[in-house]
Specification:
The chain is of the alpha+beta class. It contains seven helices and nine strands. A hairpin with a 2-residue loop joins strand 2 and strand 3. Helix 6 runs antiparallel to helix 7. The longest helix has 73 residues.
């Protein structure tokens, strides 16, 4: 009898535990009863908020779903503009579950499946918007309008998934690598042509400036040479005048100074060879005079 009571108590305990379930913070839950989503008397889906709740043991299955705002950030995709030009667009989507029953029935409650379906719908909306605009319109102030319209289309199409689109934003818009390389090469060629033109103009100006400076230097050198000759002439005239005055005052001393200057100039270099007769007048002041 005691064993039977113990079994009954354990069974009741297990039954009670199986009738309880906890919904964690940030999540919400729905109950699948006999393969269908449990609904209230008003026909609306019964959604359980975070906390402790009850269910029918063995018959109800609890599905917990993340009720927070999610971020869909996939790899960049290719879009075509009205000019039939490709763009690589990198974007992200903020979304959350709006209708938990519809979301579960459409995706099985699997987030990855929901994001695949959501990305398809968002991209379809963006393609229709990109296809009606040029590149200039897309990268200009119309980007905000484009995002708003794309978000409206994506929100409409995502209703069947039970998802609410909170925000759609483009992070980056690039040209495809092949187009980007072509544009880069064209820009590089144009810049190189401009650089060559600037270098040619600079070289021409440099030659002009050099010629002008050379002319000024030539004129300055000519003026300096003329001034030099003028000063030298004036100096020679003053020297001649001084020598003449010296000669008139003391011819012998004048002759002595002139001889000393001649000796200095003649013997300034050790490599010079002077062939002169010993009794030449050139050495007059070097000869020893008798009695002196």
């Amino acid at each position: 009898m005691k064993n039977f009571i113990a079994v009954i108590v354990v069974a009741l305990g297990l039954l009670t535990l199986s009738a309880l379930f906890v919904v964690e913070e940030g999540n919400k839950a729905i109950v699948i009863q006999f393969g269908k989503v449990q609904r209230g008397d008003d026909g609306e889906t019964v959604v359980f908020a975070p906390g402790l709740h009850f269910k029918l043991p063995f018959f109800d299955r609890v599905v917990k779903l993340d009720a927070r705002i999610q971020t869909l950030d996939e790899v960049p995709d290719r879009f075509v503009t009205s000019e039939k030009k490709d763009l690589i667009v990198d974007l992200y989507v903020k979304w959350k579950i709006k209708d938990f029953a519809k979301y579960y029935l459409a995706t099985g409650g699997i987030k990855s499946s929901a994001e695949v379906l959501l990305q398809q719908k968002v991209n379809n909306g963006l393609r229709s918007e990109f296809g009606t605009r040029t590149i200039q319109q897309i990268v200009s102030g119309e980007r905000s309008e484009l995002m708003d319209e794309a978000m409206a289309q994506a929100s409409t199409s995502s209703d069947e998934l039970g998802i609410e689109i909170v925000d759609v934003r483009v992070k980056q818009i690039n040209l495809p690598p092949e187009v980007r390389n072509f544009i880069f090469q064209r820009m590089r060629t144009e810049r190189e042509a401009v650089a060559r033109e600037h270098r040619s103009e600079g070289k021409e100006k440099a030659e002009f400036i050099k010629a002008e400076i050379d002319a000024k230097v030539t004129v300055m050198l000519a003026d300096a040479e003329r001034n030099l000759r003028k000063l030298k002439g004036e100096g020679d005239a003053q020297a001649a005048q001084i020598y003449a005055e010296t000669y008139t005052k003391d011819p012998e001393f004048y002759s002595f100074l002139r001889s000393m200057d001649a000796y200095k100039r003649s013997f300034s270099s050790k490599q010079d060879v002077l062939v002169v007769e010993p009794d030449s007048d050139f050495f007059g002041y070097m000869k020893k005079q008798k009695g002196k």
